[in-house]
Amino acid sequence: MSENVEMESLRYVCRRCGKSYSTEEYLKSRFCPNCGTLLTKKTSRETALEKGEDHFEGLVKKFFPHAEFRPFQLNAIKFAYEVMRDGRIGLLCSPCGTGKSISVLTAYFAAKELNPALGRLVALTRTKNQLEIYSRELKNIKEHCGVNFVASIFKSKKEMCPHAFEDPKLKDIRYRDFLYYCRGLKEGIFGKTCEYYERTYDGRKPSWQAYNVIGKIKRVGPALPDEVYEVCREEELCPYEVTRILTWYADIVIGNYNYILVEAIRGSILGRAGIRIREVNCVFDEAHSLPYYSAGIFSDELSSRSVHIAKKEAKTFEIDDYGFLDALYTTMIELGKKVFKNYGLDVEHIIEGETLIEALAKRLELNHERLLEIIQELADKGEVVRLKRSEMGKSPVSYLSRCMEFLASWVSLTGSSYAKYVKVEVDRDGKKRVRLGIRCLDPSLAASIINDSRSAILMSGTLWNMDYYMDVLGLDRSRCRSLELPSPFPSENRLILVDEAVTTKFEKRNEIQWKRIATHLNQIIQKVGGRVAVYFPSYEVMQDIAKLIELDAPVLVEEKRTRIVDVLEFLQKNGKCAVFGVARGKISEGVDMTTEGRSMLSAVIIVGLPYPKKTELQKALYRYFKEKFGDKALEYANTIPCLNALAQSAGRLQRSPEDRGVIVIMDRRAAGRFKRKLPEDWQRDMKAHFQIEKILARIDEFITQGKQHN
User: pTM for the whole thing?
Assistant: First the structure.
């Protein structure tokens, strides 16, 4: 059958799920077998779009607000358009500089133009910066073509709360404690109610003041969260609740991953607005982080410090805890001593979940049933503590509630999908603390909800192995489509080198190796000049090597308390300097080290390959993946997390087409079998040398070429 004849046979389409059907299939029932929706005939415009690129580009330009497409951007738009049109799950690897955000927004409007029943768009981001990009691009689209739409754009409840701005007691409390306080305030359990919430609702319905503000936002929007805050503040309304009410009318909702992945939040935001997941087109930005983020939803930790404070809390508020907190604290310390003696600091030692419960039951001379009753009873008393602290004018925090909440999860989260562990760490005061932890090993427990959406796009600049994401997120492969685009930046603007004389492979770690790495780092940083970011596989390796380095330029070494703003200020103040960080750390991923859109970095040096540490927890993940994915287990548990960390660290270098810089991987393994796992352009451009003199000569030549080009 020719292509034209095949196109003619696909004459009917489901406006809900996007599937196409032949005339013969239509005549069988006239309803979509997939979702039960009445099938309709394709319009002549849809048929024209299927046959010609010119028709498609014309449709796209109606909504695309910029004068020109970036390299490969039209490819990304078409891919996203087809995913939404056909009700698929799309995995899009689109490097920095291709304009991913505006591409998916344009694709949505184009698809909705042809199918008004397409459903809503829910764009999910991890950072405020990404959220603001979507907000700005929506404004650009409206200014460009005047298309009528409503957007509901969320920051966190705490960031949108007037009380959090006005009351210093709420400034530094944990987000979970803030949510408890917010709920209690609305319910009046603190002896007062939230005046902003009260004015937003009239009984169960929005108040007339809320309707007035929402009408204004609908007319002038899309409005940024800060703009909504200002309007609501003037009217003494709750900005978060107004945004939630706005969702009832919204074509587009922008928020964080939790709005889809966490059932309670999904129900609170989308469910209350009458939005069903099967009618939603989802976009997950920076989707390379989805596996880790999804597993983190069902993971938690509790420190001995929290238990110690809970003990003081119980004493202060005269709570009879039946000796439970003393027993918990003593048990944690005993477990911690054994772990520290056998494994040292910052190493997770896996224990059976029953080990903790049996130790507590034995120490308290209670059966398991009574133990669980006490946990629930103390959780309720923890809420009383929260109330009393608020009445005393203190922050509404309860460590007792926090401890019991963790123990309830410890008891309820069972099976091979979870690992329970103990570790010992040193806090910022130099004191040893014991931590109990729950680690979810299966991201699909949260992420498989993506399959229920009408369509979904998972996109990132470093989505390098599509099979990995399909498998570990539990995606329906029959619905998946993928597209990997090349970098839009000139290849001559990036030099990729491998130092084959060194490695951080565990078996090769010694003082001689560290001294060689330190010497080479000194020489490379000196040769590059400018600002250099250096990423290490762990804090321990960074500390061992950093003390051997002697630079004549300022150096900032990442600590656990280091803030991103501190790093950016350091780079802005120093034209020639070095920043030492850890791969997978806070300054290696999702941080734009830019000024006026240009990267501040001249080089990124990656010391060693950032494989996950060989801990018991990592071995548990491997065993779980082995059972679930067979021979892919090692790649999924070790290799791909390493690739992601490498890609994210290197990605700090180039943020615009004009940026030039050097990437140096200081590990001989990068030039071996590992190289085959890298993208084709990396394999093509990578130069490996054993002699440091040749590496320095390459850098010198690259810098000279850049000066000549300028």
Answer: 0.89
By the 8 A CB rule, do 524 and 702 touch?
A: no
What dihedral do alpha carbons 619, 621, 623, 629 form, nearest 10°? -140
Answer yes or no: is pLDDT of 153 > 70.
yes
**Separation in Å, CA 676 to CA 75, 643, 669, 680:** 26, 11, 11, 8
pLDDT tens per residue, range 92-138:
999 887 889 999 999 999 999 988 889 999 999 988 888 888 999 99
Q: Rounded CA gap, 299 and 563, in Å?
A: 24
Q: Candidates 1.20.1260.10, 1.10.275.40, 3.10.20.90, 1.20.140.10; correct CATH number of 301-440?
A: 1.10.275.40
Helix, strand or coil for residue 41?
strand
Q: Can you read off the two tokens belonging to residue 572?
A: 């802005």
For residue 519 the two structure tokens come to 């010497």
Q: What is the pLDDT of residue 9?
A: 44
Neighbours of 574 (CB within 10 A): 17
The helices-and-strands tally (H runs, E runs) of the chain is 31, 25
Average pLDDT over the chain, rounded to whole? 90
Q: Dig out the tokens for 451 from the structure.
A: 């399959």
Structure tokens at 525: 């940083």
Residues 374 and 400: their CA atoms lie apart, in Å, by 12
Homologous superfamily assigned to 491-709: P-loop containing nucleotide triphosphate hydrolases (3.40.50.300)
Answer for the pair 298, 444: CB distance below 8 angstroms, yes or no: no
Task: Of 126-130, 146-150, 321-325, 504-508, give the lowest mean pLDDT range.
Answer: 126-130
How many Å is the Cα radius of gyration of the chain? 28
Residue 17: its pLDDT value, please?
63
Whether the upstream peptide bond of residue 222 has omega within 30° of 0, thus cis, is yes
Measure the CA–CA gap between 363 and 109, rounded to whole angstroms: 63
The one-letter amino acid at 55 = H
